[in-house]
Design goal:
The protein is α/β, with parallel strands linked by helices. The protein is 37% helix and 12% strand. It has a five-stranded mixed β-sheet with strand order 3-2-4-1-5.
Length: 226
Amino acid sequence: MSDLDATTPRVFLVRHGETEWTKNGRYTGITDLELSHAGVNQVTATGTQLVGAGKLIDSANIARTWVSPRKRAQQTCQLVFSGDDDIANRLIVTEDIAEWDYGNYEGLVVGEIRARRKEKGLDGEREWNIWRDGCEGGDGMINRSADQVTERLDRLIAQIRKMQAPYMNGEKPADVVVVAHGLILRCFAKRWLNYSLDNPLPMMLAPGAIGILRWVIAFLLQSRID
């Protein structure tokens, strides 16, 4: 990243902490689980280490925070920003960043999903891949639901870019935070980069982890020209 690009506002991606299903690798979409004890410790430690005055996420630099309505994301947000009323006053709860609906695969692990699909005669030549094949009865790559996921993420990204675009040289603090879930945050990163959801972007956020996205000035200039 050039020195010029380093002045641009940031988007912090915060994944919720561990739940009982997360630690078992179970797909968790609409099921409204709370954090496990370990998950509480994870996000509390993240907040202590990385959030606060002079730290990576400084509330003085945060213009807006978006959070998924699911309990695990809400709880994560509360713990990461514990005691920070300024963040709470700039927080928006939105379904635009809620996790995928995994449909019939909710609560299952990959091995169980692949076994069920083979019993139905699916995936004869290649194993199931969520990005390519989607989920039966839920959001997927081959039906309108995938388009709807893209639509809601693009809607949120447009809001963020509109908010941040005037402050590319640090004229005003314009960092934002998005607190959500593993798969939808990967989708968010892909759409931020203008990739389709089935692009094999090698990205993973561990429970309780924080990722950072930034603008590139060349992209901003091209966007203004277009």
